[in-house]
Description:
The protein has helices at about 10-25, 40-50, 90, 95-100, 145-155, and strands at about 5-10, 30-35, 65-70, 75-80, 105-110, 120-125, 135-140, 160. It is built from 5 helices and 8 strands; from the N terminus they run βαβαββααβββαβ. It is about 30% helix and about 25% strand. The mean pLDDT is about 90. It is globular. It has a single domain (about 5-160), classed as Rossmann fold. The protein binds adenosine-5'-triphosphate and magnesium ion. The site of adenosine-5'-triphosphate has 19 residues, from α1 and α2.
Amino acid sequence: xxxxxxxxxxxxxxxxxxxxxxxxxxxxxxxxxxxxxxxxxxxxxxxxxxxxxxxxxxxxxxxxxxxxxxxxxxxxxxxxxxxxxxxxxxxxxxxxxxxxxxxxxxxxxxxxxxxxxxxxxxxxxxxxxxxxxxxxxxxxxxxxxxxxxxxxxxxxxxxxx
Length: 161
Ligand SMILES: Nc1ncnc2c1ncn2[C@@H]1O[C@H](COP(=O)(O)OP(=O)(O)OP(=O)(O)O)[C@@H](O)[C@H]1O
Ligand SMILES: [Mg+2]
């Protein structure tokens, strides 16, 4: 299991990471975004959608839990599981159906249901000193394995095992 750890200080740095990841995305990919409240998950999603050519304004899916954005290179289904009250509610979000249509899933608080997504790129955000963030990129399942080395190179950071 390899992991890339990056220190970022600004929203622009986060946007650069999002652009690198966006360039690697294929239909049906899953991105799990982890990290505390305000760590930068939605900020990342906004930049990712922009990089895919989505012009619609991306907002936090806090109340309706799931938003879908079309018009870019790929359709993005963006959800936030923080307010998911029962795991059973996950089924109501129809994420599997969206994937079957070829959408990319971007899941904030995806770690709240650890068994739901077994093949995913995991992007973690942590608060660091000042306004800075530490971003960790890792993967689970076979879907990202082959792409991860190249992705790490493009993120221009050391890869640790
Ligand atoms: N890399 C960064 N550097 C500095 N500030 C950042 C960075 N990323 C995000 N922020 C700022 O942190 C604030 C919260 O970010 P954001 O809404 O993306 O967090 P979140 O992880 O989605 O939170 P929540 O769990 O509540 O959905 C925003 O004001 C944003 O501008
Ligand atoms: Mg958010």
